[in-house]
Amino acid sequence: MFNDVSRRYDFLNHFLSGGIDRRWRKRALEILQLRAGESFLDVACGTGDLSIEAARKAPSRIVGVDFAEKMLRIFVEKKKKLDIDENIDTIQADAERLPFADETFDVAAVAFGVRNFGNLKAGLSELYRVIRKEGRVVVLEFSKPRGLGIRQVYLLYFTRFLPVIGRLISGDRGAYSYLPNSVMDFPDGGSFENILREANFHDVRMTAFTFGIATAYFGRK
Fold first, then answer.
1. Closest C-alpha to 175, from 42, 68, 28, 23
2. pLDDT tens profile 66-115
3. Residue 65 · residue 45 · CB < 8 Å
4. CA–CA dist 136, 133 (Å, integer)
5. What does the alpha-carbon distance between residue 107 and residue 90 come to, in Å, rounded to a whole number?
6. Closest to 136 (Cα-Cα) out of 57, 205, 64
7. What domains appear along the chain, each with residue ranges and CATH number?
8. How far out from the chain centre does Cα 22 lie?
9. In the chain, what's the furthest Cα-to-Cα distance?
10. What is the pTM of this model?
11. Mean pLDDT of all residues belonging to the chain
12. Quick one: which of 30, 60, 51 has its CA closest to 218?
């Protein structure tokens, strides 16, 4: 499915969110406190927007991992155009079986990908395994607004209008119906904080963005 929508993926992300998804990624990296000289793993990296933003922080190494080959191809095209090709490696791999030794990275992140894990706990356990002691993780994901009024408007847009617009632009009937369904099924808020704790992360906390439409979850090994 992600291979099928790869060519229109970036445009639809920015169009359907009104461009605010870029700000969410910046805020998530601020919460992660990515510092110059640290190694950074971007899991479910897609077309690489988070890794490209992270490159501004001058980490020593950036590795983007994704299961969808065509998404990674676009990521490679983008980093070549930006002349940061040598600074970022891309690897096609399963988030639940990361091809890295224990404690390889200082920090790791997942942006809008964790809800697509086939086994959420297995994917989080892999994140925990590959970061070093006191390493940090941030998970940026869609969430469901709680505020009266905002929630109703959001659900109307997200479940009725977004699938139609996404289908018309991408040509894929399933992908933009899958998106709201996966968000509705995702255990957001305090439920996801508890799942992070069950995966052995500590200092767990969350920060909601834009009335709770997206949330960044922080954890430390």
1. 68
2. 999 999 999 999 999 999 988 899 999 999 999 999 999 999 999 999 99
3. yes
4. 9
5. 16
6. 205
7. 6-146+187-220 (3.40.50.150)
8. 12
9. 48
10. 0.91
11. 90
12. 30
